[in-house]
């Protein structure tokens, strides 16, 4: 039997939460995520053809990088919809990364970044 290589595997992300119940409300009520499994170790959500999980930890919100990206068809429409639900998008003006109205273009790929209630950085991305 030939084992699949990592490039053929699905990849999920794990997102830390100090306040699992409060953070859960954001992912379910604002982002529309639906839990598929829950146990004392956290909550697993399906997102498109992949999964992500929220897990309880005191270290939530300490990462200074993007933890994961939601792949979308239309980044402008997604940003507008999420803003309508109270999500604030980050503005960046860094070498190689400048947002305009919350959205950056990186070689044809367009993205926008926001923080969940724990301060974890997530993004929405539209591929070319």
Characterization of the model:
The structure is a single chain. The chain is α+β, with helices and mostly antiparallel strands and 128 residues long. The protein is 16% helix and 40% strand. It has helices at 20-30, 75-84; strands spanning 13-17, 34-39, 42-47, 50-56, 66-71, 93-94, 97-98, 103-106, 109-115, 121-126. The strands form 3 sheets. The protein has a 4-stranded mixed beta sheet, with helices on one face. The longest helix has 11 residues, at 20-30. The radius of gyration is 15 Å and the shape is globular. The mean pLDDT is 94.
List keywords for this structure.
128 residues, 10 strands, 2 helices, 4-stranded mixed sheet, globular, 40% strand, alpha+beta
What's the short version?
With 128 residues, the chain is of the alpha+beta class. Helices cover 16% and strands 40% of the residues. It has helices at residues 20-30, 75-84, and strands at 13-17, 34-39, 42-47, 50-56, 66-71, 93-94, 97-98, 103-106, 109-115, 121-126.
């Amino acid at each position: 039997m030939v084992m699949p290589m990592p490039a053929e595997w699905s990849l999920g992300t794990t997102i830390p939460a100090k306040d699992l119940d409060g953070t859960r409300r954001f992912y379910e009520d604002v982002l529309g995520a639906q839990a598929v499994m829950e146990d004392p170790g956290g909550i697993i959500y399906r997102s498109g053809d992949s999964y992500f999980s929220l897990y309880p930890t005191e270290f939530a919100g300490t990462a200074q990088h993007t933890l994961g990206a939601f792949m979308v068809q239309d980044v402008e429409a997604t940003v507008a919809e999420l803003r309508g639900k109270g999500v604030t998008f980050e503005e960046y003006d860094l070498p190689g990364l400048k947002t305009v109205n919350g959205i950056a273009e990186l070689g044809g790929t367009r993205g926008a970044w926001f923080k969940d209630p724990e301060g974890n950085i997530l993004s929405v991305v539209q591929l070319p």
